[in-house]
Write a structure and sequence with these properties.
This protein is an alpha+beta fold. Helix content is 49%, strand content 10%.
Amino acid sequence: MSGNTPLPPRWIGSDGEAIEVATALAADFAREAPLRDRERRLPFAEIERYTASGLGAITIPADHGGADVSFVTLAEVFAILSAADPALGQIPQNQFGVVALLRDIGTPDQKRRFFADVLAGRRIGNAGPEKGGASMLHMKTRLRQTPEGLRLSGRRFYSTGALFAHWIPTRALDDDGKPVQVWVRREDLGVEVIDDWTSFGQRTTASGSVAFTDVPVEPGNVIPVHAFADRPGLAGPVSQIIQAAIDLGIARGAFADTLAFVRERSRPWVDSGVERAVEDPTIRHSVGALATSIHAAEAVLREAAGVLDDVAAEPVTELSSARASLAVAEAKVLTTEAALEASEALFDLAGSAATRAGHNLDRHWRNARVHTLHDPVRWKLHLLGNHALTGALPRRHQWN
């Protein structure tokens, strides 16, 4: 399916339009989200609708024909979609991180070609880290120069979006042992996307394996990321703020289902002396505390996105890049806590009836628990504490 030529998507021309489109899509996506999760029904049709909506191109620069919406808008779009179905929020996330990297270090020709493809409705996936290595940076994937040209070989995992993609960028080491980003097409000879994702949460992201076997690579589709290791940029913070927005969406979705269940189904506790669960003072107290936590996460996420907008408005420096990473780290801490708190509190407030399999409300906790494991929040706290105590700047990579 992903190899087909897509129909030209809608062109979104403003921040307000992007929010309107996301809100309308989310309302439709929410209807069958529990069923997709229960049956692990991969959302091919929904992703095609998302692409046709034009949302995938909203950060393409204006001088390349895109809307170039603010990061405040981008974060809110992902939160809106993820409140409806966080798997549908996560699938397109890598496209925006890659677009940010292209903006930072892509050649003029690469920007022209790849931005035009995104505007035309082609999706960018991901072939993530390798399994079994000593660290996340362990890499056996190689890009080799052969008598027949460049060839890519290796096997990657955590490849969110690859099953739905037209382009699959991945990291590899070149003949000199230096890291490069390599772009191949989903339908290229030697590319195999394997649906072996078995996590108990985010079940329909299809974040499984991609195998590359002597895949021909065009020289113009290689980005020598090693040459820009010391250049400050925003690709890492952009990727991270989307992760935080997805977690905020999970919190919103869990909270909305909590309120609905308490209003419509829950019974008051025998000692409460009230007739309806919504009149229980302990439930009201807990709901108020939970609403406050979510609103705090929303505010800090919006503030962090505003920092990214400010930083992007000027040439990015080492200090401004660090400022962006620190702001996003704070947001990631609060959205992680909100997602886990909201998805757990749902059962405490809604009661034992909420645990019945038919409601499938446990998907909120499963999704929160799995997605918040991306980029562990304890290291965000370490980053923030280290900076506060010593002034140390965050390391620059895709997780900061």
